[in-house]
Design brief:
single chain, four-stranded antiparallel beta sheet, 1 helix, 10 strands, 11% helix, 37% strand, globular, YXWGXW_rpt, signal, TAT_signal, YXWGXW repeat-containing protein
């Protein structure tokens, strides 16, 4: 039995049935079917613009057990693309973390 199958078989016994595991295609997101939404972000001022970079504001991420604050950071800009910030979205009775990503346009 593979590790993943063994883990899935143990979920009901562990009382984690409320946690929906992401498929391999959704490996960059997490669905939480229980508990409160992430806390509101800290109100921190963004630093001055930096040429050739995009500021990613601080945000809450999920570490597998709890929400953890991720400080803001710079990412190198990509020509012809725009950056969509990481965010939490309410979906199917739970919360899904959507990591930041680049879009054409």
């Amino acid at each position: 039995m593979t590790g993943r199958r063994r883990f899935l078989a143990l979920l009901p016994a562990l009382g984690l049935a409320g946690l929906a595991l992401p498929s391999e295609a959704e490996a960059q997101s997490i669905i939480l079917q229980f508990g409160p939404p992430p806390p509101p972000p800290y109100a921190r001022r963004a630093p001055p613009p930096r040429r050739g970079h995009v500021w990613v504001p601080g945000h809450w991420r999920w570490d597998g057990r709890r929400h953890v604050w991720q400080e803001g950071y710079w990412v190198r800009a990509r020509r012809g693309q725009r950056y969509q910030e990481p965010r939490w979205v309410r979906e199917r009775g739970g919360w899904r973390y959507r990591p930041g990503r680049w879009h054409r346009g």
